[in-house]
Every structure is written in structure tokens, then in C-alpha cells.
UniProtKB/TrEMBL annotation:
<dbReference type="GO" id="GO:0003700">
    <property type="term" value="F:DNA-binding transcription factor activity"/>
</dbReference>
<dbReference type="InterPro" id="IPR046335">
    <property type="entry name" value="LacI/GalR-like_sensor"/>
</dbReference>
<protein>
    <submittedName>
        <fullName>DNA-binding LacI/PurR family transcriptional regulator</fullName>
    </submittedName>
</protein>
<dbReference type="InterPro" id="IPR000843">
    <property type="entry name" value="HTH_LacI"/>
</dbReference>
<feature type="domain" description="HTH lacI-type">
    <location>
        <begin position="15"/>
        <end position="69"/>
    </location>
</feature>
<keyword id="KW-0238">DNA-binding</keyword>
<keyword id="KW-0805">Transcription regulation</keyword>
<dbReference type="InterPro" id="IPR028082">
    <property type="entry name" value="Peripla_BP_I"/>
</dbReference>
<keyword id="KW-0804">Transcription</keyword>
<dbReference type="InterPro" id="IPR010982">
    <property type="entry name" value="Lambda_DNA-bd_dom_sf"/>
</dbReference>
<dbReference type="Pfam" id="PF00356">
    <property type="entry name" value="LacI"/>
</dbReference>
<dbReference type="GO" id="GO:0000976">
    <property type="term" value="F:transcription cis-regulatory region binding"/>
</dbReference>
<dbReference type="Pfam" id="PF13377">
    <property type="entry name" value="Peripla_BP_3"/>
</dbReference>
């Protein structure tokens, strides 16, 4: 008969791996080996442990699995720019994927203005006893600091480009930009401005290069390029004051910038998309509710988190050769872009 969790002066308690070990007459390490499918266990011993587990209604915990593997089953995450949509969405996706396979995530946020926090972040996570490190949305300056660290831990960096030093996985940012610009060119636009994110960010540089390459392939001159930050305020300042001249379309480096552009243009009586087209990047959950609904480039953050976790687990289990996976973005066409009307 299955027994209930043990009672004590503190109330009901779920049975532990030690309780199972006592019931089965074995050590707790033997229970751990059974839980993790260790081959060098006598069948009679395995059967006795499994019977005790069933009788006590024992649910293996991450602690029990860690005892058998001598791992914490915890991944340390260093996240640059945690308030930005992309990094934040990637972290949530990684946490979800980790929970589904019994891993926990400890995160350390690095502020936009202090890449030197990378040192203290690595130290804090390593002190917690994590099995691996993941770096989300890195800037060049923060990765330079990470290269100077020697942790001995498997490490994955979320960026589109392969890197011989680490495992990497990322959305193809350059191709995402090319999808956006090709779409505008296909609609007849010949003067396309780009509002770029900070150039210390790999994603910002890749999106800028994709815009530049696509224009060159089409034989078009580079439109105006303005480098700023990731905020709607940056886009708003452009929209309310920039002299568009013959510019008929704006490729914004993210959806927040695009929202600011639309707002700023609206204040000047410039209509989107009738007078100027605007396209973003990320596909925020609210992008379809912008006025007008925003054409943008979607990043699959759920797939990104799952791939990152798969690489990390493989690395934890001994796959030391740096690997690289790339996810393709998707163009989402809405009402902020339209064909140029011959005039």
C-alpha cells in the first residue's frame, strides 16, 4: 500500500531520497544511481529501490538527480540589457525550456552602461555552483571581458555569428534586416533610412549590415543612417524633427524605435504608410496593435531558448567542440508598409 508523506512537528513533509534509502536498505547514492539509470546496479537492488519509491510516493527532485551526477542542474545566465524586449524574451524562453528538463536558471543582469559588471556576474554565478554559463544579447565590450575569464564551465553565447571560443546560437539578424529591406524595395521604395541601435551591440551591427548589403545588391544608394539607442524616444526625436527629403521608408532597428518614429511623424502631420513607410524588428506582442499595425521581423525566442538549452546540456555531458545553430527570422507584413504610388 502506498504510504503518505512523513509527518513531523512541522507538519506533513514529502519523503526525501534518504527516506527512500532507509526503506530500501541501501545508501542514498544507490537510490540516486537508480533514479539516473546507472547500469552498474544489481537488478534485485534496483527492484527494491523502485518498490520503495512507489510505496512512499516519492517524486525525484533536482537535488536527488544532482547527487547522482554531482551537478547542480542549474544554468547561470549573464544578460546584457535586461530591460530590452529581445534579451528579456530570450531569458524567459531559456527558463521555460530549462524547467521542462529539470534545470533551474540563475540570472545576473548587466546594466547598459557598465560592461565591467561581467566580472562580478561571472564570479557570482560560479560561486553558486552552476553547471554552465549562457550569455544573452552580448555587447562587444562585455564579451571582451568574458574572454579574459577562465571558469572551466561550458559556455554558450546568444549571437548570430559563430565563435571559436564558445558554443553559439542566434537568430540570423543580418537576414532579418535583408527581409525587411527587400520588402520595402519590392514595394517600390528607393530611399530607405535606417535607425540603428548602439554599435557596441552585435545585433545592431548585423541589422545595419543587412540593410547596407541589400541596398547595394539592388543598386540603390544608402539612405540616411542615424545611430542611437533602442528606445522609442530615439525614434520619436527622429520622427518629429528629421528632414526626410526624398526618403519614403524607414527601417527601424527594433519595434520600440518604430513606435517612436510613427508617433513623431504623426505630430508633424506625416502619415504612415501613406507618406512614409515604417518597418521594425522583433515583433513585439503589441506590434499588431500599433496605429497602424506594424510590419516587422519576427524572432522565434521560444526556439532560441530551446536550442540554447540543448547545446548547453550537450556541453555539460561532454560535447566540448564549439557548435553553432542559426534560426531564421520571419517577415510579418501589416499595415505600416504599402506600395509606392507613382506621382
Amino acid at each position: 500500500m502506498t504510504s503518505m508523506p512523513q509527518s513531523s512537528s512541522r507538519g506533513w513533509q514529502r519523503p526525501s531520497i534518504y527516506d527512500v534509502a532507509r526503506r530500501a536498505g541501501v545508501s542514498h547514492m544507490t537510490v540516486s544511481r537508480v533514479l539516473n539509470g546507472h547500469p552498474n546496479i544489481r537488478e534485485t537492488t534496483r527492484a527494491r529501490v523502485l518498490q520503495a519509491i512507489e510505496e512512499m510516493n516519492y517524486t525525484p527532485s533536482s537535488i536527488a538527480r544532482a547527487l547522482a551526477t554531482r551537478r547542480a542542474r542549474r544554468i547561470g545566465v549573464l544578460i546584457d540589457g535586461p530591460v530590452q524586449n529581445g534579451p528579456n524574451s530570450t531569458l524567459r524562453a531559456l527558463e521555460k525550456a530549462a524547467r521542462e528538463v529539470g534545470y533551474a536558471v540563475s540570472a545576473f543582469s548587466i546594466g547598459d552602461d557598465d560592461a565591467s559588471q561581467m566580472d562580478s556576474g561571472v564570479m557570482e554565478l560560479v560561486t553558486q555552483g552552476v553547471d554552465a554559463l549562457c550569455v544573452i544579447a552580448p555587447r562587444e565590450s562585455s564579451l571582451d571581458l568574458l574572454r579574459q575569464q577562465t571558469t572551466g564551465l561550458p559556455t554558450i553565447v546568444i549571437k548570430a555569428e559563430a565563435d571559436a571560443a564558445w558554443h553559439t546560437v542566434g537568430v540570423d539578424q543580418r537576414e532579418g534586416a535583408r527581409l525587411a529591406v527587400r520588402h520595402l524595395i519590392g514595394l517600390g521604395h528607393r530611399r530607405i533610412a535606417h535607425l540603428a541601435g548602439p554599435m557596441d551591440w552585435f545585433d545592431a551591427r548585423e541589422r545595419m549590415e543587412g540593410w547596407r548589403e541589400c541596398l547595394a545588391e539592388a543598386g540603390l544608394p544608402e539612405g540616411p543612417i542615424i545611430i542611437g539607442d533602442w528606445t522609442s524616444d530615439f525614434g520619436f526625436e527622429f520622427g518629429k524633427s528629421f528632414d526626410l527629403g526624398d526618403t519614403t521608408a524607414v527601417f527601424a532597428a527594433n519595434d520600440q524605435i518604430a513606435l517612436g518614429v510613427i508617433h513623431g511623424l504623426h505630430g508633424r502631420g506625416i502619415r504612415v504608410p501613406d507618406d512614409v513607410n515604417v518597418i521594425g524588428f522583433d515583433d513585439l506582442s503589441d506590434a499588431r496593435h500599433f496605429l497602424p499595425p506594424l510590419t516587422t521581423v519576427r524572432q522565434n525566442f521560444a526556439e532560441l531558448g530551446e536550442l540554447a538549452l540543448q547545446q548547453l546540456i550537450a556541453a555539460i555531458e561532454g560535447d566540448t567542440d564549439p557548435s553553432h545553430d542559426t534560426i531564421q527570422p520571419k517577415l510579418i507584413i501589416r499595415e505600416s508598409t504599402t506600395a509606392v504610388v507613382p506621382g
